[in-house]
TrEMBL record:
This is Zinc-ribbon domain-containing protein. Residues 189-208 have a biased composition (Low complexity). The chain crosses the membrane at residues 36-57, 91-117, 124-142, 148-169. Keywords: Membrane, Transmembrane, Transmembrane helix. Residues 189-209 are annotated as: Disordered. The keyword Transmembrane applies. The keyword Ribonucleoprotein does not apply.
């Protein structure tokens, strides 16, 4: 995907002549394939965090819902103790599982946002979040993990893989824009002969008894050090 912008400017910088300076600026803004892939992967990561992810305790919940429940009841000791016992008979193991789920949710959403706003930004945080959530699933369900994972889990891994591909396609992450500037200057002499014509400036300077100003093109005597017309040193 390319956007080409052409800017044409004309201004009169010379003095006492009709010499004009033409400036053509071409800007090419490229949105390469890796950027599009990363954007797509980031959207999938964020959507996955809000879809049914695990069968947790008594039903299907997204990791957003589990994280929200943990953070809202974190200061309520009785509710948290009951919550931990439902997750695992061991308080330490239950706390570890919940901590991994909260960390995985944060990594998944941060990775998704980075992938949307920055090329290859989610290629680390996104997969990292899914690894953490997979570990949490194994600690919770063990070998029966496949029966406890929902569509959010599969979409999360899909988005993480897409982000990795987007980051691997283009290792140079700084070339999201290519700016090409072309400056063309044309100075017209008082005799009507432009410097850009087939007659080179060397041939003009070699004319008998004359010397041309390289700024305004005025024809001066050979022994002149400064242009009579514009005062430029020649």
């Amino acid at each position: 995907m390319k956007l080409i912008i052409l800017i044409y400017q004309e201004n009169n910088r010379t003095k006492g002549t009709n010499g004009k300076v033409y400036k053509i600026e071409i800007k090419v803004i490229c949105m390469d394939k890796s950027r599009i892939i990363s954007l797509f992967g980031g959207i999938i990561l964020i959507v996955a965090a809000f879809l049914p992810f695990f069968y947790f305790i008594d039903g299907w919940y997204s990791i957003f819902e589990i994280t929200y429940a943990v953070l809202m009841n974190f200061t309520n000791n009785s509710v948290m103790q009951n919550f931990l016992l439902q997750v695992n008979p061991s308080y330490g193991m239950a706390a570890m599982i919940l901590a991994l789920i909260v960390a995985g949710f944060l990594l998944l959403t941060i990775g998704g946002l980075l992938a949307i706003f920055k090329k290859a930004g989610g290629s680390i945080a996104g997969p990292g979040g899914m690894i953490v959530l997979t570990i949490a699933g194994f600690l919770y369900a063990g070998s029966m993990l496949l029966g406890f994972i929902g569509i959010g889990f599969y979409l999360g891994w899909l988005g993480a893989i897409i982000c990795i591909i987007g980051g691997a396609i283009s290792p140079d992450k700084d070339k999201s824009k290519i700016n090409v500037s072309v400056n063309q200057q044309q100075n017209v002499t008082t005799t009507g002969t432009p410097l850009g014509s087939n007659q080179s400036s060397e041939n003009l300077k070699s004319s008998s008894g004359t010397k041309f100003c390289n700024q305004c093109g005025y024809q001066n005597k050979k022994d002149t050090s400064f242009c009579v017309n514009c005062g430029n040193k020649i």
